[in-house]
Amino acid sequence: MIQRRKVIFGAISAAVAAVVAGCSKSGKGGGATTWVGSADDLQTVAAPVRLSVTPTNGNTGHSPAKPIVVSAADGKIQSVTVTAGGTKIDGALQEDGTWQSTGDLAYGKKYTVSVKATDSKGVETTEDTTFTTLKPGNTAKVTFQANAMVILDKGATYGAGQPVIVAFNRAVNKDAAEKAIEIKTTPAVEGKFYWRDSRTVHWRPAKYWAAGTKIEVNVNMFGVKLGKTTYGGKNASTHFQIGRQLIAISDNKSHLTKVYINGKLVRTMKSSLGKGGGMTTPSGARISYWTAGGPHVVLGKKRKHTMSSASYGVADPKNPNYYVSENVEFCTRISYSGEYLHAAPWNGSLGRANLSHGCINLSTADAKWVYNNFLIGDIVDVKNTPRDLPIWNGLGDWTVPFDKYGS
Known about the structure:
The chain is mostly beta strands and 407 residues long. The chain folds into 3 domains: 2-132, Immunoglobulin-like (Sandwich); 139-242, Immunoglobulin-like, CATH 2.60.40.3710; 246-404, Beta Barrel (L,D-transpeptidase catalytic domain-like). It has 3 helices and 31 strands. β16 (191-195) and β17 (200-205) form a beta hairpin. The longest helix has 14 residues, at 10-23. Mean pLDDT is 90; it is low at 1-35.
């Protein structure tokens, strides 16, 4: 609806008509009557203000991520008020004279835009329009994970193998989601996405993070269509940094685990890895007793932990593969299937033979040192074992060459 003060043209038009008639009067015996005047003697009329509001009046599918823009041709905006119920949306005049909203809109809300503008003569024009933002069938939320068992702590320090992990609360379109994810690193590095499933995406560089790298992650998904009826909820962000670069090499043949910090060997530990072989559980699952080979990433730590074959289906004490080890000390986890570096004071073959069910057995002193010094995200690379770590078992991201990693 537009309202404008009307200028009465009738009297002016009549006067002009009379003057014109007088000027054109003539006769056979007399001269013409002439009126001499100036255009300035006539009242000038300013061009009307032409207002434009985006989104247009009656729009029912406006993205709340897009701003409201108001312009006034042949005039000047005096004020703009945007409301939705009792909520008022902030905005500001731009250098080009347009007005643009700066406050966030919301999904499924009806907004009223009230504009006041004046022409070059100060005549005021007002206009009221309404529009409605789109209402999605579903909205997606995200959490940032260190791994499937641990939430990423904003601002925390992690190891050189820690990938960026963005977990959506529902399935999303992968291409749309990747476009919404912005990752900045200092120093800058190339990286790739890998989708663990339709909800969880990882991102890693070509090589382990350098010590001291800073990582910033922004998921700019508000108003973004992420599925047939799914749109992004609130934007989300996090940041973390890499500490010293710690890489442990555990060798199945030499029975030694060597720890390197920033490329320098700092500790050599006698070890006992998986004894090899395996079994089939009563449910038909195949269990291997080899420690999985390839780069593992530290997932978490427990001061004491009870380990039992019942965790993978062997609960009968009469089964020769049955075992229960209560309150195992200084446990540092490296796979979802239950591989740990831990204290094994009962194992008299550290440094000489592999006798575990898949874990990396250490002395109590060495296990304590690992527990106290390793970070979530540190690398434990297992060498010379016949079984490979699958990418899904923990953070096996580094087991895949970069040219074959994700997209």
